[in-house]
Hints:
Radius of gyration: 14 Å
Amino acid sequence: MTALRGTGRVVAYILAAGFASLVLATLSERRLASYGSVLAVATVAVLVGGSNAALASLLKRLPKGSGCLPFAIVALAADATLLFGVAVLGSAARITPWGVVLGAVLATIAGGLVFSLVDEPHGPD
């Protein structure tokens, strides 16, 4: 797969984060997350996906052998922090503490897949 540039890669991260947010709201029987509107889902997706895209562009400057693990560790912390902020400050999105944890894990997995497909350097330059 050829590497996406600029806006295309940011959109890929936003779509992955939106997918993770919808999976969290749909599959949780205990209602770990609920969104009052489509705008709330889009806001969470833009915040989490945008931060993952920014992190990926920073972490691409690490040595080639480091792979996806540094992205996952930093993205998990950033995603949990952003989802906690949404849980505390958001009125249209309600996320429980366990929803923050599971949502951060799901968003990190989705962002890691996008990182592996789009941003991780493959082969010699």
